[in-house]
TrEMBL record:
Transmembrane feature ranges: none
Family stated for the protein in its record: Belongs to the TonB-dependent receptor family.
Subcellular location as annotated: Cell outer membrane
Protein name: SusC/RagA family TonB-linked outer membrane protein
NCBIfam families referenced in this protein's UniProt entry, alphabetically: OMP_RagA_SusC, SusC_RagA_signa
All residue ranges annotated as the TonB-dependent receptor-like beta-barrel domain in the record: 382-936
Membrane topology: Multi-pass membrane protein
Signal peptide start and end residues: 1-24
Length: 980
């Protein structure tokens, strides 16, 4: 039924695209656009019919030709850096002269604010925009790389260099929940996505701009889904005029950026000869292998994107296809992606009717890095004297605890994943009156992932042909109805929006696995043919809804005084019956001082003061069905007989019900200042914020009885985020010769845990502290080291203090060995950065352009669990160690302390590019050739592979995990070509 309705809607939309253009009678207007100061022609100026998307661009001589309805009276000419101008159609040709704009808060810049857009000068919330000309360059497969380090308050960390990784850390203004999703909401052309992968699989070449909504008053328009901030992604659209074909692509090569300094064969042999009681010949196998380099390679990456765009008579379109291949620097690991994207807009009925369609389909093929943590252990553990192959060419098999041939495991294990993602939305708007517009939007998101796994029998390891398949489906259905009102009364300007939203989130999964397959060539394609007693089948399904009502009013007086107020009511069936609905208000005030107090101050171009307060709800910390009583299987009844497994299982309570579960709430206060000074030589914004998250959901401890089990999901905890953001842009040199523009941002954020205890139904509900991270290693089991602790920063470390070693190599903690003091004092240590920053510089000279971007973190600390495990001489002779293990003097095994908590501040040359633009080529309107590099150098004291760690890793480098995947350094050669 849904498919039938969808087909009907598609036919209706296509009918509108085909029939409606024929309903208009047009005339042709021609003209030329020049600079008002020197009369030079301006190519690339957008000339459009006022109030519509009907338009064209001027050619190299500044000329244009535009077909408009016979009744049309006014054109608009807009060009970045110039003031938008309205022109009355008095005849043809027209001579349009544009005046250079002296303010960065000019009317040409339009910012997405959710359910609409505003001129930058009218924005009242903390919103920052990044356009395509400011994107990071180089190997950019994941679009997150385009804006990493560019936006104050937006923290993006991409650990390692695995092309298949989708676990990048993304947060805006710090931690917002204990267990809830920390990532902002991505909105792509009006589609509020249901997962970050839908954005991260978008082709970077299709993106036009980003608008980052940071404070609660700005994000409140998206309610609970925008509780962690909102990133509005606008893709490239077609423009009325000549059909344009654009190509962008590059080819690059990457290598692992850094390796651990492990013992080579000679150092290893010498070290084990010095160990009493060890027979060196037992470990001398004739090899000389650097296992880190044995599994790595020079990886090739290439990306290709072709787009066709154009339009006429109120219709515009753009379609693109992209193909990407990114090899990993670890063998047998790569990502291939094929994406299709199409968008179109049709205006009709004298531009009263506006229909837009956006459609994208992406298929991603992943050859995974299998057994990531185990293989990393194998790499570290394998002695360098063990060869890869036997003399007959077969794999050299060596097996022990965490010891095996890593190359054999990587090459012989089959692990692949295929993802299919579809995003489609259609919006129909109709202007009932010049100031009143109504519309509806329908959205479909389909996300399917299928994984295949087969591990053959490895001699001596006990496993016998393991195979598995997993399928995961995530379908989201969204719809909204909206009303927009815009009206000006003299100096009074008012706009209002009212929206009804419906969101249905549906997921299901299925998995099957087995062992002992007699025909390994079948891989995972006959799961029922193995040992029936080893078969395992699992499945799940859940469905929840969010329904919302919202209203927003914007008012400004004389473009000087601004007020924005909104209220949103969200309902979700994930919560208890008593609190499914929440109401969340927001208000912003702004005052442009330049229009009043500073109107006679020449060096101030514009200055705007903003104040904002808002409340948003958050439901991401709660999974479906966590508010109700759950029952499940317990232990089997047992009478001591050998056939005990034949007895039925018992059933018991698994979860307490809590009908009073309600929304987490984030209250945010923001004060901001936007400015443009010295004829736009210096511009930027400054924001101070103070946010508090309360009613945090967590599985807190409760007494039994009266409760069935000793935990319950409850709204108890609270934390705060306070911070300062500064973003600056300086036009250091500008003119017809050498140009130099510098941008920089710096963010200070402090997260503090306020409370983790309270009462529920009169009973204490509390967690004195919550463990967030642990250290591990041989003989350590798992030792908690980071916590959420009331009164302390988030992820605070709690460690003993290392002070050296005694004459026997025993570690000293506060001057004593563990024999002298088995329970040494522990101290709280804050690992969080003092600040994050990014600095970019762009130079232009004639047809040349050069840019580079530096990004850094100051004050961060990381627990180097890898070195705790492998900078330890006691691992010899059965495993390898770092060279420092031979000289650090420690001989008593593994002990967790602040010795391994390292200063991880860093400054990275993230990317640099040099390009040349060719002009006046017949048949080509623009062509740029460039070379670029990524991760060119890192300055840091951190001894691990790379100091970039996402906060959700709790500042702990995993046990021998190579940080999941080593970081790479890459170089590319690329081109951007537009054909006319």
């Amino acid at each position: 039924m849904k498919l039938k309705n969808l087909l009907k809607l598609s036919c209706l939309v296509l009918l509108c695209f085909v029939v409606l253009p024929a309903m208009a009678q047009n005339k042709t207007v021609t003209g030329k656009v020049t600079d008002a100061k020197d009369g030079s022609p301006l190519p690339g100026v957008t000339v459009s019919l006022k109030g519509t998307t009907t338009g064209t661009n001027t050619d190299a001589a500044g000329a244009f030709s535009l077909s408009v309805p016979a009744s049309a009276t006014t054109l608009e000419a807009a060009f970045l850096g110039y003031t938008k101008q309205e022109v009355t159609i008095t005849g043809s040709p027209l001579n349009i002269k544009l005046v250079s704009s002296s303010t960065s808060l000019n009317e040409v810049v339009v910012v997405g604010v959710g359910y609409g857009s505003q001129r930058k000068k009218d924005v009242t919330g903390a919103v920052e925009s990044i356009s395509s000309k400011d994107f990071n360059q180089g190997i950019v497969i994941n679009p997150l790389s385009q804006i990493q380090g560019k936006v104050a308050g937006l923290n993006i960390t991409q650990q390692g260099g695995n092309p298949n990784s989708q676990d990048a850390g993304i947060s805006i203004r710090g931690q917002t929940s204990i267990t809830g999703n920390q990532s902002p909401l991505f909105v792509i052309d009006g589609v509020a996505t249901s997962g970050n992968s839908q954005f991260q699989n978008l082709s970077p070449d299709d993106i036009e701009s980003y608008d980052v909504l940071k404070d609660a008053s700005a994000t409140s328009i998206y309610g609970s889904r925008g509780a962690n901030g909102v990133i509005i992604v606008t893709t490239k659209k077609g423009r009325t005029g000549r059909t344009t074909v654009d190509y962008s692509g590059y080819v690059g090569i990457s290598n692992q950026a850094k390796y651990y300094d492990l013992l080579n064969a000679a150092d290893y042999s010498k070290a084990i000869e010095a160990i009493p009681g060890v027979t060196p010949s037992t470990y001398e196998k004739g090899g000389n292998v650097d296992w880190q380099r044995a599994i790595s390679r020079s990886a090739v990456t290439h990306s290709n994107n072709i787009a066709i765009s154009g339009g006429s008579n109120g219709f515009n379109y753009r379609g693109s296809v992209n193909y990407q291949l990114q090899e990993g620097t670890i063998i047998n690991n790569q990502k291939k992606q094929l994406g299709l994207r199409f968008n179109a807009e049709q205006k009709a009925l004298d531009d009263k009717l506006d229909i837009t369609l956006n459609f994208s389909n992406t298929t991603v093929y992943r050859d995974q890095l299998t057994d990531g943590g185990v293989i990393a252990n194998y790499i570290f553990n394998a002695p360098p004297t063990y060869p890869i192959y036997n003399p007959d060419g077969s794999y050299n098999t060596f097996v022990d605890f965490n010891l095996a041939n890593p190359l054999e495991h990587l090459l012989e294990t089959y692990s692949r994943e295929t993802s299919y993602q579809t995003l489609a939305n259609t919006t129909v708007n109709y202007n009932l009156l010049p100031s009143l517009k109504v519309g509806v939007t329908g959205i479909l998101i389909h996300d399917n992932t299928l994984t295949h796994y087969f591990q053959p029998s490895f001699p001596g390891e006990g496993n016998i042909n393991n195979a598995a398949q997993n399928s995961y489906n995530n379908n989201t259905y969204e719809a909204n109805a909206h009303i927009d009102f815009n009206k000006s009364f003299g100096k009074h300007n008012i706009s209002a929006t009212a929206v009804y939203e419906y969101n249905d989130f549906y997921t299901e999964s299925f998995s099957a696995s087995g062992q002992n397959y007699t025909t390994p060539e079948l891989l995972d394609n006959n799961l029922g043919s193995g040992d029936q007693s080893k078969n395992v089948i699992n499945s799940s399904k859940d469905d929840y809804k969010i329904i919302s009502f919202l209203a927003r009013v914007n008012y400004n007086y004389d473009n000087r005084f601004y007020v924005t107020a909104s209220i949103r009511r969200d309902g979700s069936d994930k919560f208890g019956a008593n609190h499914q609905w929440g109401t969340f208000p927001a208000v912003d005030l702004a005052y442009r001082l330049k229009r009043d107090l500073l109107q006679n101050v020449d060096w101030v171009d514009d200055l705007k003061l903003r104040l904002g307060y808002g409340v948003v709800g958050n439901s991401s910390a709660l999974n479906v069905y966590q508010n109700v009583t759950l029952y499940g299987t317990g232990t089997r009844y047992f009478d001591g007989s050998a056939a005990s497994n034949q007895y039925p299982v018992s059933y018991t309570y698994l979860q307490n019900a809590n009908p009073d579960l309600q929304w987490e709430e984030r209250q945010g206060k923001n004060i901001g200042l936007d400015f443009s000074l010295f004829n736009n030589r210096l511009s930027g914004d400054i924001n101070y914020y103070n946010d508090k998250t309360s009613k945090m959901i967590y599985q807190y401890g409760v007494p039994t009885p009266p409760f069935f089990v000793n935990t319950i999901y409850a709204n108890i905890g609270a934390l705060t985020n306070k911070g300062l953001e500064v973003a600056l842009t300086g036009q250091i040199l500008r003119g017809s010769g050498l140009t130099w523009t510098a941008n920089g941002q710096i963010t200070f954020n402090k997260t503090k845990v306020v409370n983790l205890s309270g009462t529920y139904q009169g009973f204490p509900v509390a967690s004195d502290q919550i463990v967030t991270g642990s250290a591990s290693g041989r003989g350590l089991s798992s030792s908690p080291i980071t916590y959420l602790k009331p009164g302390q920063p988030a992820d605070v470390f709690y460690l003993t203090h290392y002070t050296g070693v005694d004459a026997n190599g025993n570690e000293l903690f506060d001057g004593k060995t563990l024999d002298q003091n088995p329970n040494p004092n522990k101290y709280y240590i804050d690992p969080n950065p003092k600040f994050n920053y990014g600095i970019s510089n762009s130079f232009g000279y004639k047809n040349w352009n050069l840019s580079f971007f530096l990004r850094g973190v100051y004050g961060q600390k990381i627990f180097n669990n890898t070195l705790l495990d492998y900078e330890t001489i006691t691992r010899l002779p059965s495993n390898n160690v770092t060279k420092a293990a031979l000289t650090n003097g420690i001989k008593d095994g593994l002990h967790v302390s602040d010795l391994w908590l390292e200063n991880a501040s860093y400054l990275r040359l993230d990317n640099a590019s040099l390009g040349y633009t060719f002009k006046n080529i017949k048949g080509i309107s623009n062509m740029r050739i460039y070379v670029a590099g990524n991760n060119l150098f890192v300055i840091t004291k951190y001894k691990g592979l790379d100091p970039e760690f996402a906060p959700n890793s709790h500042y702990t480098d995993g046990n021998g995990s190579l940080q999941s995947y080593p970081k790479s350094r890459g170089f590319v050669l690329g081109a951007n070509v537009s054909f006319k």
